[in-house]
Amino acid sequence: MTHTKEPWAVEMSEAPVGAPFAWISAEPDGKYTGIAAVTLEPAEANAARIVSCVNALDGLNPEAVADVVALLERFAERDDSNGDEARTALARIRGEG
Q: What is d(CA 11, CA 28) in angstroms, rounded to the nearest whole number?
């Protein structure tokens, strides 16, 4: 299975009933593609998170992310500059830094 090529974007809009929603879209090969409408509040933040994840994984296998985190956790146990870098990377990944 393949997905729409990155980058994806978020556009805020008003639904016909006046409720705001976030529209996730992309323009692969110059053709506009609507991907999803997010209506769960906060719609813009939820859509932005989806788009951020998709764009960050461009060219990567998302199923391997857990393996990469596990490797960083092992490096983080080291008491040297590699451990420092791994701890910094883990903090960023977890939104702590």
A: 16
**Are residue 86 and residue 47 in the same domain, yes or no?**
no
Structural domain of 54: 8-59
Q: Percent of the chain having pLDDT more than 90?
A: 42
Which residues in the chain land under pLDDT 70? 1, 15-19, 40, 97
Query: In 10 A of CB 55, how many CB atoms?
Result: 13
Helix (H, G, I), strand (E, B) or coil at 40: coil
Selection from 20, 31, 26, 22 nearest residue 8 by Cα: 26
- Give the span between the Cα atoms of 64 and 38, in whole angstroms: 27
How large is the C-alpha radius of gyration of the chain? 18
